[in-house]
Design brief:
By secondary structure, this protein is of the alpha/beta class. The protein contains twelve helices and ten strands. It folds into two domains: 211 residues, 3-Layer(aba) Sandwich (Rossmann fold), CATH 3.40.50; 94 residues, DNA polymerase, domain 1.
């Protein structure tokens, strides 16, 4: 029987098609984590269950979390064949550790954090993640998140919008876009994804295959779901749950996430640190891991051709050492 903690299933609309989501860097991730019978893993963002299925099929036990009730509902059915070896937690991965002891877990052989937004979320209009479909300007990954993208677009100060677009979306036209949004919302509040995309396109005309609203939508999604704050908090918490020899693998999809993961991995895998003002190097008190990926692992050309949404994915990994 699958154990589900805090289960809350969001009603699906319009009979969303399967597959729910195609796992990215699947073979590379499994090779890195090395699942086997008797091992216990944590899948922090189970999504459609692609990585989870491979971990379970190798005979491992799996604890998995997701804040999206649609994802939980999907894997309850899709992974039912694995029975009691799968334990599900409906929560953001930064909060999931509060349930580990209740499940009898003392430490993990491996942890996976896949930070990508699922195809289901992007392709479900009423979730409001994509400008390709008209839907409410929402972008919340879970129902417990109070603030919607519409709340930011309609009520945040112009200065705050500039900051969001510039820092979280790395949008060069952040100031001009924010000014136009403030001007437009004074006439009529923004309600839909297409409302927002059209106004951004007025400021930044479309050139090439990338829609000019891409960075704005990314920035709003990150802000609404506090993605960078959650990742920064979760990395030390979850890595602390690894047993010696246990591995943490993280799949990122944009430069801000990847930079944060790269910096954290470097910090905890560097045995000695040195500064100009010190007479000699000092042992790093954070040193507990071995870096497995000097450079990130990226999708093959074959994978990106099959699944264009994988093109920006990067996999990095560390292994806990015995001190």
């Amino acid at each position: 029987m699958i154990a589900v903690l805090e289960k809350e299933v969001m009603v699906r609309k319009n009979g969303q098609p399967r597959p729910f989501h195609e796992a990215v860097l699947l073979d590379e991730t499994i090779e890195c984590l090395r699942p086997a019978p008797g091992k216990v893993f944590f899948d922090a963002t189970i999504g459609g269950g692609g990585h989870a299925r491979r971990l379970l099929a190798a005979g491992s036990e799996l604890v998995a979390s997701d804040q999206d009730p649609d994802a939980i509902a999907e894997v309850v059915t899709g992974l039912a064949e694995f029975g009691s070896r799968l334990h599900l937690i409906r929560a953001n991965f930064v909060e999931a550790h509060r349930h580990f002891s209740a499940l009898g877990v003392e430490a993990f052989d491996g942890i996976l954090i896949d930070l990508g937004i699922s195809s289901h979320q992007l392709d479900t209009p009423f979730r409001g993640f994509s400008f390709q479909y008209e839907g409410p300007l929402d972008m919340r990954m879970g129902p417990n998140i109070a603030q919607r993208a519409a709340d930011l677009v309609n009520f945040a100060t112009e200065q705050k919008l500039v900051q969001i677009f510039r820092e979280l979306g790395e949008e060069p036209a952040a100031k001009r876009i924010a000014a136009r949004l403030v001007q437009k919302r004074a006439e009529k509040l923004f309600e839909t994804t297409t409302d927002l995309a059209k106004v951004v396109e007025e400021v930044v005309p479309r050139r090439g295959p990338r829609h000019p609203a891409t960075r704005v939508f990314q920035a709003l999604r990150i802000a609404v779901n506090r993605e960078l704050e959650v990742l920064q908090e979760a990395l030390p918490i979850l890595s602390g749950w690894l047993k010696p020899g246990g591995r943490l693998a993280v799949i990122t999809f944009h430069s801000l996430e990847d930079r944060m993961v790269k910096q954290y991995f470097r910090t905890v895998s560097q045995e000695w640190i040195d500064r100009p003002e010190w007479p000699e190097p000092r042992r790093n008190p954070a040193f507990k891991f071995r870096l497995l990926t000097a450079r990130p692992i990226e999708p093959s050309a074959e994978e990106t051709q099959r699944n264009p949404r994988a093109r920006s994915a990067k996999l990095r990994a560390i292994e806990r050492i015995q001190l």
